[in-house]
Amino acid sequence: MEEAKHFINNRWVAPSVGETIPVVDPSDGQIFAQIARGTAADIDRAVTAARAAYEGPWGAMSAAERGRILARLSMLIGACHEEIAQIEARDTGKPLKQARADATGIARYFEFYAGAADKLHGETLPYQSGFTVLTIREPHGVTGHIVPWNYPLQIFGRSVGAALATGNACVAKPAEDACLSLLRIAELAAEAGLPEGALNIVTGYGHEAGAALARHPGIDHISFTGSPATGAAVTKMAADNHIPVTLELGGKSPQIVFADADFDAALPVLVAAIVQNAGQTCSAGSRVLIERAAYEPLMERLAQAFAALKVGPSTLDLDCGPLISAKQQQRVWDFLSDAQHDGIAMAAQGEVVAEAPEAGFYQAPTLLRDVPPTHRLAREEVFGPVLAAMPFDDEADALRLANGTDYGLVAGIWTRDGARQMRLARRVRSGQVFINNYGAGGGIELPFGGVKHSGHGREKGFEALYGFTTLKTIAIKHG
Ligand code: NAD
User: Fold this and answer.
1) Which Gene3D superfamilies does the record cross-reference, listed alphabetically (predicted)?
2) Of 93, 188, 293, 320, which has the highest C-beta tally within 10 A?
């Protein structure tokens, strides 16, 4: 991997402006690498390369051969698993075990989509007599992928894996805060036999390289994961070129716990769903709604669990690592100072260990109680290890609270009552519902995406293949 370069046409390419962006280790706040500062000229070069691949060897390749290349890539990632996990841990600050899980996740995405590549097919349709009508699924062409910093490996894997499997040529713009692991993956993709131009990575700032990608007229589809505001900006840019957009914009996902739930099973999951990746998870379970009869006993157990959590550098591999940046840390502090100002009680807080460097971006996991449903802590995405707890009176109240935000990504329902499980699962407004479990970010095979401000379109699972293709209808008159 060559420092401070883009990966275009299977080669390392210096940035056209000759400038770099420093990369900071969130665990100690120190600069440890440089990435290339991409501009519109670099994006243009990458899109041109992708177009040539799509109209050339990559576009001509059979689905089975595409699948074989993706399978080889998955195996190469497996062979470099520890190296990739180490890069990811340093770049994002996440504990090593989480980075290892992410490295396993991306290998699994390419494995899944390798197997799916030659399983996607169209249909024959009944029509007028003397006709045969069929549908075929075709790739969009050149797809753009704007990737955030919280799970670079996983989010790149789910989006680029499905796009390549269906025959698109890709240009990815990872986040300026964390992109090193993806440059290594691109290098491995070339080694796996991906033809020149099929996968290109341009690093750089969002307003510069990201915006240049979103508005490039040579892009046929764009997938974006990140904040609702940037998602809206990307959509407006894409609208000028009339291209489809897949958006995944985070959430304020509720975990609804009834008094009859198995608390022993629920407790570790409720904690992990907000502490994982220091709460910087789009599908984090960031609200816990608890039936009033069980509120105090469960809050007591949650408080004990939060107080026992340890936070430190990625290398110590504790419960929680630092936040990604000083900017993100300030954002979380602002939410917590609002909570304090508005009299919201802190039920418990974990501990930042003494070995954590002063200049790292640490935040102790925080449990807040009796958060008013109208408060921004109950409605907005903190994107930090902050869990907002609130009681509810009955099923209708639980549903009203669960659906009472602008978001709708994931919901967790904890109850032993089977009829209630299904009633709520059908009425809660979210893209995924977990009953007596919760999969923050998990489930390669499971279609994933939101409703309302959480976005639209689905990634992961077989469903993603439909999003990365367009349907063509062919009507043949044969008499
Ligand atoms: P962001 O949405 O601005 O950045 C996400 C990606 O978009 C990055 O690759 C970035 O470079 C790119 N980008 C930024 N501006 C762009 C533009 N004008 N055109 C095209 N691409 C652009 O998110 P952020 O500023 O890094 O984080 C702010 C908040 O967003 C976080 O606190 C969190 O609440 C939310 N967020 C959500 C997710 C998620 O997984 N849903 C991921 C990251 C951030």
Assistant:
1) Aldehyde Dehydrogenase, Chain A, domain 1, Aldehyde Dehydrogenase, Chain A, domain 2
2) 93
